[in-house]
Amino acid sequence: MRRSGPLMYLAHAAVWLYVLLLLVPVYYLLVSAFKDNVGILSAPFSPFTGLELGNFAKAMEHATLGPALLNQGYVTVAANLLTLALAVPAAFALARARGRIGVLVERVFALGFLVPGFAALVPTVMLSIMLGLFHTREFLIVFLPASAMPLSVILLTQAMRAIPRDLEESAVLDGAGSWHLLRSVYFPLSIPTLTVVLILNFLSFWNEYFFALVITGPDTAVRTAQVALPTLSLANASQYGVLAAGIVITLVPVYVLYVFFADKMERAVLAGALKG
Amino acid sequence: MSTRRWRDLAPLGFTLPALGWFLVFTVGPLVSLFYFALTDWRGLIAPRTFVGLGNFTRLAGDPVFHHAVRNSLVQLVVTLPVVIAGAFMIAYYLSLKPRGHRFIRAVLFTPVLLSAPALAMVFVGVFAPSGLVNGLLKGIGLDAAVRPWLAAESTASIAILAVIVWSSMSVSAVMLAARLNNVPAELFEAAGLDGCGHWRRMWTIAWPICRDYVGVVTMLQFLWTLFSSAAVVLLLTRGGPGTSTVNLSFLVYDYAFNQSKVGYSQAIAVMLFVVGVLGLLGIRRLFRQNY
């Protein structure tokens, strides 16, 4: 950077202070996860008070995190597959559609992106009761794709629209029908965007809290990891180490994904829905 | 129907499953919300009786609701300007590619990956009586400032605000930085040659260029503060101490699932939905590109 006035020094200082503010709680979380209570209280910031792995075992046991993680994985993967199964054909049709009705349908999805679904917490529970799926993971699996549908469809439609028409025309000349066209031209060519959508939905489904809380309820056999995690705070009020270990455990899948797909993940975040 | 018209429409059949899903699981519940708000209804499996606008008139005399309105307003008024202005300045700073900007970007990305429970649980540790903040204060000899942050009325709402800002400013900054990266560098260089400093370049050139995108980021932040903060409140303070940290979205959950006021809670949900939609429209108007 070029010449810097006093303002620039202030900017450096302010941004690095903010970076520090972001890192300190994360650092505190990580070191606490490996400490016993005495270590947390007597030397809160030291990374060297022995390596206490018991916290992780306790967290798994007290919050029955084992089944909870499996439930979370089951819901996340199944909901993700269902979202794709619904969104890919829709995007395919919208990308190729001409005329007003196609535009209208696309606008419905574009508006849906900003619908605050949280307001419908209770009606959604009523729907699950009506369908006989209250307190089941399966309701989450069919419900979550609806919330992800608008953005998934919009992103995939944009990607498929960018596919050159020539490719399609040569396939049509060879006698390909719609399904064949989708399978052999549109699907393979939109895989980069498909990956972004998959990651985006993985993050939002894995991290889903409120709907999981009211739908799956307190039953340890069906509740997800995000619902199980806060119970550690109540059960171990005086043991931050156990809670910290629990948090770390639920974060592992997300960070593993981040390590492998950092740039795709950033694109997913920029696509915009993660805050909702 | 003419064959040509049919040929244009038939492929749209592929959109029907997605559209149907969206209608059944998103639009349907939202519509029935407006009916539920007009009922007296004590529990999820209890019978409902239609009471018209009774729930809404009851809201007018409910001090907890008033408290929630005030808290939600304060949360919006404080976090929106702080987060958007802060994020924009960080984004501009990053666009100058200062030393360590890659590292900063990676750190800014950290809070994105935290789920609401993970975020709240991290801050349970931060604000606990023997937690991070008090540990730091003791470490620098400010024992007098040590306090139970979440259990005291004066500090609990400030703690909630801090968590909202902490978790969302960085994401907004990453998004805005990506937008600024697409601005041609010559624009800024020309301004630099004219002797225009960074402060003026940031607000008179970069801001107007990104105006519409800043609007989108503001909308997302608005939704986050209004709705997603419910999880932070629920998991950090449960609205307490007393009712000092209740906000509208938390109250919808609390009344419906903990206090057996389901119909009444839906009146609040309707208000929340309306505030949400009006707010989004307002923000869009405010940031409409006007050149």
Description of the structure:
The complex is a heterodimer of chains A (276) and B (291). Chain A is mainly alpha-helical and 276 residues long. Chain A folds into 2 domains: 6-52, no CATH class; 55-271, MetI-like (MetI-like fold). Helices cover 75% and strands 0% of the residues of chain A. Chain A has helices spanning 6-33, 37-42, 54-62, 65-96, 100-112, 121-130, 137-161, 165-173, 178-189, 191-206, 210-216, 225-228, 231-235, 240-260, 262-271. In chain A, helix 4 packs antiparallel against helix 10 (191-206), helix 5 (100-112) packs across helix 7 and helix 7 (137-161) packs antiparallel against helix 10 (191-206). The longest helix of chain A is centred in the first third of the chain and has 32 residues, at 65-96. The two termini of chain A are 36 Å apart. The mean pLDDT of chain A is 87. Chain B has 291 residues and is an all-alpha fold. Chain B has a single domain, classed as MetI-like fold. Chain B is 71% helix and 2% strand. Chain B is built from 12 helices and 2 strands; from the N terminus they run H-H-E-E-H-H-H-H-H-H-H-H-H-H. Chain B has helices spanning 3-9, 16-36, 54-60, 63-95, 101-108, 116-127, 132-139, 153-181, 185-193, 198-236, 248-257, 262-286; strands at residues 39-41, 48-50. A two-stranded antiparallel ribbon of chain B has the order 1-2. In chain B, helix 4 (63-95) runs parallel beside helix 8, helix 4 (63-95) packs across helix 11 (248-257) and helix 10 (198-236) runs parallel beside helix 11. The longest helix of chain B is centred in the C-terminal third of the chain and has 39 residues, at 198-236. Chain B: The chain crosses the membrane at residues 12-38, 73-94, 106-128, 156-178, 213-236, 263-283. Chain B: It is found in: Cell membrane.
